[in-house]
Amino acid sequence: MSTVVHTHTAPASGGSAATAARKSRMVSEAGMRGRWWRFAAILLITAVVLVPIGVVAVLAFTPGTTSTTTGPTFENFTNVFSETLASTWLGNSLVVTLATVVVSVSVAAPAGYVLSRGRSRAVSSYSLLLFVMQSLPIITSVVPLFILFAKLGLVDNLLGITIVYVASTMAVATWMMAAYFDSIPISLEEASWIDGCSVLGSFTKVVLRNSLPGVLSTAIFAFLLAWNDYLVAIVFLRSDLTFTLPIGVQSFFQQNATDWGSVMALAVVMMLPPVIVFAALNKYFSVGGIGGSLAGR
Amino acid sequence: MTATTHGLAKARRGVAPGGPGRTPKKHTRTSTLKAQTTRTFFWLLLPSVLLLLLINGFPLVYAAIQATHNGSLINTGAFVGWDNFVDVLTSPGFWKAARFTLVFTIVGVFGSWAVGLGLALLLRTRIPARGLFKVLLLLPWVVPIVVSSTAWNWLVATPQSPVPSLFHALGLGTPLFLADPTLAMVTVCVFKVWVSFPFMMMMSASALASVDENIYEAASMDGASRFQQFTQMTLPLVARSTYISWILMTIFCVNDFPTIYLLTGGGPVDATTSLVVFAYRTVFQNFQTGPGVAVAFLMTLTLVIVSALLYRQIRKAGVE
Asked: Which residue in A180, B129, B160, B193 is deepest, having the highest Cβ count within 10 Å?
């Protein structure tokens, strides 16, 4: 914790131009030195933190013991795709994840709007209900759902797990949307009502149209949840043709624990989509809003 | 404008200049808007309510039935009252799992909070390439657990793995990170902190963003040390969001399955079996749904109590 205390009073960007100028004159030399110390510290921390992820990347491109090549190679990837059902698993994961994202956002956005604008007792108790449901361990609902889905033929079925994913994103997705709608001034809707727009019309045409960051943020959340899930998939998916990537990677790892190159190649395939999505869209992603949305009602 | 049942905030504040549509009489405009709002809100909320009832509500009722029956995954079995709960509460395996869950949750919540807050404070200062670090440090949270647990396995699992070899080279013996019960508990907890700190970093960063930097200047003129500024100004100012992040992380930790199961499978000798892993095994490996679901219910009860206590703290912090 000593770094924490040491660093947070260093010259920061806040304050008016005049105070900033005075501050920077007063502490410029010490500040510059502190700045590079902090840079060194964060560089070291980041390097250590990223070791496990670096390991995956390096091993994936390292030729196996039986290989004739030396140096970086794509062999592990071609092996994994030709010898396992990796492409099927990848396809399954993509279908399930995209369906979850679309359905989750289209259900959470209207609900979040009601939570944001509604002030009745029914609305706030619904918000509380969402909170209670969110704190239930997923295993509580997985067992009954397994029995129900078995009767409906939804076990070992991609539709089945998509339904479970949508349900388990619901609470947080709704809070995220509500938090974003809270930041949109109601005067925008008022103006549209005066123009003769209906309540629904002003939601879809005015509010939603100005909510791209909120929608993207919620979509990223749903994407990560569905793509990374393990528990639901391991319970519901039984045959290797319906496996999603997490189960595929895991079963492959259990059977080929010594073939690290192929295991890590499959791991790279699995981690690339979330990393790409996050790298491209991370400026939209914010979990801070959940807090306000949770405690505000 | 009192006691609106369903109404937009604006309508309640009495600033409604006119509702949607063209209503000729002035005094009916607001009530038309209100009625329309109620109707629209009902339809907007309906899909979410239906989904919640179907996917969360129904299983909850069904789970309550299962918890009081001695059935399996195939049939419901006979009614046994509280027997499952008694069985679970008197089994040593349950209490061992409960103890580990407690340790795992406390380390997970406060460990990831301390690391996340520390990094958020560090990243708030002027540092070259700050934006890049912010994204890179989120990676442990973004990368699937299946992937990161595989990598951690490679790093620590066997005596020949890199980390034990490093310890050996430094003359610290050859620790068996996943084979020794105590060390396995430590490893799982460290892994959980590694996975979760980015979430706490994001929560802390957005709370800190609302703290006005200028207050520190006044404080340092009054002679407050940096440590005092941190404990007496920064922490109280972010208290509310801190409590919220603790609640969320407590829920995430207690309900966590893959972080533990994929790294150790609950072993060695059940040292890292948490309540969720215990419930999962009871249901899907021993095929006893009743006791398994009973465990889940007991967890939920504990979680609701802890959340309620923390929620009261939020209310208090919000009053200030």
From this structure: A180
Residues from chain B contacting residue A42 (CB–CB below 8 Å): 119, 122-123, 127, 133
Contact B121 A4 (CB under 8 A): yes
Nearest residue in A to B42, CA atom: A114
Touching check for B60 and chain A: CB below 8 Å? yes
- Asked whether residue B36 is assigned to any structural domain, the reply reads yes
Question: What are the chain B neighbours of A178 within 8 Å (beta carbons)?
Answer: none
Of B8, B15, B206, the CB nearest to A288: B206
Nearest CA in chain B to A227: B144
Task: Look at A238 and A282; give whichever has higher pLDDT.
Answer: A238
CA B240 → CA A1, A124, B146, distances in Å?
21, 19, 33
Q: Do A119 and B12 touch (CB under 8 A)?
A: yes
Query: Hey, where are the domains in chain A?
Result: 2-49, 85-295
Number of domains in chain B: 2
* Beta bridge partners of residue A54, listed in sequence order: none
Asked if B224 is an interface residue toward chain A (Cβ–Cβ < 8 A), one would say: no
Tell me, yes or no, whether B46 and B193 share the same domain: no
Domain of B28, in residue numbers: 9-51
Question: Same domain for B22 and B87?
Answer: no
Prediction pTM value: 0.83
- 3-class DSSP assignment, residue B68: coil
Q: Are B128 and B277 in contact (CB under 8 A)?
A: no
Q: Tell whether B62 is covered by a domain.
A: no
Question: With bands split at pLDDT 50, 70 and 90, how would you rate the model's confidence at A226?
Answer: very high
Say yes or no: B121 contacts chain A, CB-CB below 8 A. Answer: yes
> Six-digit token pair at B210?
């609302």
DSSP class of residue A259 equals -
Minimal Cβ distance to A144: which of B59, B142, B227:
B59
CATH code at position B120: 1.10.3720.10
- The closest of B95, B282, B201, B132 to A287, measured between CA atoms, is B201
A85-295 maps to which CATH number? 1.10.3720.10
* Whether B45 and B94 share a structural domain: no
In a shared domain, residues B30 and B93: no
Whether B309 contacts chain A with CB within 8 A: no
SS3 B133: helix
Q: Verify whether the Cβ–Cβ distance A35 to B293 is below 8 Å.
A: no
Q: Is residue B251 part of a domain?
A: yes
Residues 18-37 of B with CB under 8 A from A: 18-22, 33, 36-37
pLDDT tens, position by position, for chain B (320 residues)? 333 334 344 343 333 444 444 444 444 556 677 778 888 888 888 888 888 888 888 888 888 888 888 877 777 777 887 888 888 888 888 999 999 999 999 999 999 999 999 999 998 888 888 888 988 999 999 999 999 999 999 898 888 888 888 888 888 888 888 888 999 999 999 999 999 999 999 889 888 887 777 788 778 788 778 788 888 888 888 888 888 888 889 888 998 999 999 999 887 888 899 999 999 988 888 888 888 888 988 888 888 888 778 777 777 765 54
ipTM above 0.85, yes or no: no
